[in-house]
Specification:
Layout (H helix, E strand, L loop, with lengths): L24 H4 L32 H26 L12 E5 L15 E5 L39 H6 L19 H8 L10 H55 L6 H4 L4 H26 L1 H11 L3 H7 L49 H7 L6 H4 L2 H7 L34 H12 L5 H20 L1
Antiparallel strand pairs: 1-2
Length: 469
């Protein structure tokens, strides 16, 4: 008395008949002793059944009736209690009959118990007031009882833990993915392991595979349908094209036969039955088709032929101006390059006209003046004998490029090998030549003035004529 009671949830260690500790008491805690709990290995083993075992025999009829009667009375009492508790006004409960008890006191004597040795005591149950409220609270919360016992788990025998298993059991700390105050480098695997995403099992619905297969099948069927439809359209277009070509060929053949007179007026009605006539007609059509094809091929190359004819009929001087090569002298490099451009001291480094940069006269000399190409181009060809006949010899002997009237100041010792070439007068922007001529006129004698004036006038006339030409 007067001491505090120590409350503890520790269980008392118990042993079985073999002296082993009963660890299943942890499971039985909070359950009644009559509850069946499977917590041993032997509980998982199948139990042998013996027909002679009394535990497995069927109970007798008397035992069945007795158990049934007990069950009925227990259910009736529960029902009556539920109904009576639900009623607002209850009738007085029926009291039990009175009980008589013989009482013998321990002290005997005249001074005790009024000198009586025994007494009869009548015990009656006290009547309850039906309107009396309940004396105790029945709505208090009672702690929930223990749940169902867990199923037995079979564990393998204990074995020594390896170093790798110990390292695998090291769980990394939960480190923030946004803060790194001390600059610690966190490995990627540890950072991912901290999220716990590897512990979640990804479950993929099988309907995805069905959907993908259905889409693939539908796509393949659609492609096959489109391809088949395209093939049919191509075949129809090809047949239509062949039909139109046959129709056009038939019309063209009829027009050719009617124009050439190959078919007689009555050949269509009664002559189609003759096989020889049909063979001849087919042969004629083939021959006509070949001739038309040759004409078309010849007509298709008219551009190249026209270009060749144009080059043939080009003037000789125009060929020289354009620099067309001589096909008869392709072995020499003279027909490809201008020989005057090589081994010359003049050029951009020395300037034009001996350093006179203000005169931009690039045409100071005739192009291909003394070249052999000019002589070969102006020479008639061997096959021109049929075209000119006896006039070819006369053309060879005739001097070409001889002017009808000579110009003043011409050099007769030089023979022309090409077309007539003119020389441009030098430009005189300051009229120096006119000034010099006047000075010369003033210095000459009066008797010689007439002849000098005539000569100057004659030169001026020739120059004007040259410019006009």
């Amino acid at each position: 008395m007067g001491q505090e009671k120590n409350i503890s949830n520790a269980l008392v260690i118990k042993t079985d008949k073999d002296g082993r500790i009963r660890y299943d008491e942890l499971v039985r805690q909070g359950h009644s002793k009559d509850r069946i709990i499977y917590s041993k290995f032997s509980d998982l083993l199948p139990k042998p059944i013996d027909d002679d075992d009394p535990e497995f025999n069927k109970p007798s009829q008397e035992t069945i009736e007795e158990t049934t009667e007990k069950t009925r009375k227990a259910l009736e009492s529960l029902v009556e209690m539920k109904v009576a508790a639900a009623a607002p006004v209850r009738r007085a409960e029926k009291t039990n009959p009175a009980e008589y008890i013989r009482y013998t006191p321990s002290q005997q004597g005249a001074a005790f118990n009024s000198g009586a040795k025994q007494r009869l005591v009548r015990m009656v149950e006290m009547q309850k007031d039906p309107m009396e409220p309940p004396k105790f609270k029945i709505n208090q919360k009672i702690p929930r009882g223990p749940p169902s016992p867990p199923p037995p788990l079979m564990h393998s025998p204990a074995r020594k833990v390896t170093v790798k298993e110990q390292q695998d059991w090291k769980i990394p700390p939960c480190i923030s993915n946004w803060k790194n105050p001390r600059g610690y480098t966190i490995p990627l695997d540890k950072r991912v392991a901290a999220d716990g995403r590897g512990l979640q099992t990804v479950h993929i619905n099988e309907n995805f595979a069905k959907l993908a297969e259905a889409l693939y099948t539908a796509d393949r069927k659609a492609r096959e349908a489109v391809e088949m439809r395209a093939q049919i359209e191509r075949k129809v277009a090809q047949k239509e094209k062949e039909r139109k070509e046959e129709q056009l060929q038939r019309i063209a053949q009829q027009a050719r036969e009617s124009r050439a007179g190959l078919r007689r007026p009555g050949a269509t009605e009664g002559g189609d039955n003759d096989p020889e006539l049909m063979d001849r007609e087919e042969l004629r059509r083939d021959r006509a088709r070949d001739r038309a094809r040759e004409r078309n091929l010849a007509r298709s190359n008219n551009e190249a032929k026209a270009k060749i004819e144009k080059d043939k009929e080009r003037d000789i001087s125009e060929q020289i101006a354009l620099g067309l090569p001589n096909p008869r002298f392709n072995s020499t490099s003279e027909s490809l390059f201008d020989q005057r451009l090589f081994n010359q001291s003049k050029g951009l480094d020395s300037g034009f006209e001996g350093g006179a940069d203000d005169l931009y006269n690039i045409y100071d000399k005739p192009w291909r003046g003394d070249s052999e190409l000019v002589n070969h181009i102006y020479r008639p060809r061997q096959k021109d004998t049929d075209a000119y006949g006896t006039d070819l010899d006369a053309l060879k002997k005739t001097k070409r490029f001889v002017p009808d009237r000579e110009f003043s100041g011409t050099d007769h010792s030089r023979r022309l090998d090409g077309p007539v070439q003119f020389e441009r007068d030098e430009e005189d922007p300051f009229n120096l030549s006119k000034f010099l001529s006047k000075v010369k006129k003033a210095e000459k004698r009066p008797g010689e003035g007439t002849s000098g004036t005539d000569i100057s006038n004659r030169d001026t006339t020739h120059r004007k004529r040259d410019r006009k030409d």
